[in-house]
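Wed. Picked up where I left off yesterday with Ureidoglycolate hydrolase. The coffee machine is broken again, so keeping this brief.
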Amino acid sequence: MEPAKPKSEPTVINLKPIEATPESFKEFGQVIEASPDGEEFGPNDAQLDLSKGIPRFYIMNLQNRPLKFSTITHHASVTQCLGSIGAHVWYLGVAKPSLVDPEEVKKYKGKIAVQSRFGHFYVPPAIDDVHVYRIAGPKFIKLNNGTWHAGPLFKADAMDFYNLELSNTNVVDHTTHSFKENGVIFSFDE
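Structure written out below (tokens, as returned):
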């Protein structure tokens, strides 16, 4: 009997964090900053899609979220808003939405579309399409429907975050892609 081959160590891809600004983040969603009281609704406000269920706005306590990840998630049916309580620095890994119209699956430009366990189709994110954003100060992030995301990630032992999604997002609309299958872990530092 041949001895088992040792598993190779994963490839660590070091990413350089990008400062989240309305311009730098627009491909993935919005960066929402403070506006004067009484200002009317406009394009600088979160453009939300909460139409497919009951909205859930809550405080999410996260612990031990170091500056690395190997899985990434998207929500096909809802926008999601995240912001740190206390305006602490945090990070979010992202890749652009890759949802595919069911009518277009067969002719989707030669790429392989996958059907999620929730029924929608998507193309898995490419390693080269993954970025990390640094979010600092009194602002929050609105993710577009289908935006792949990993995090929030942070250096502290624990942080609290505002989270706006649907009441059942993590049960009926939580598609995850693992880069471990490709032997990849993303890492970054300030």
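Quick read: The CA atoms of residues 105 and 113 lie 6 Å apart.
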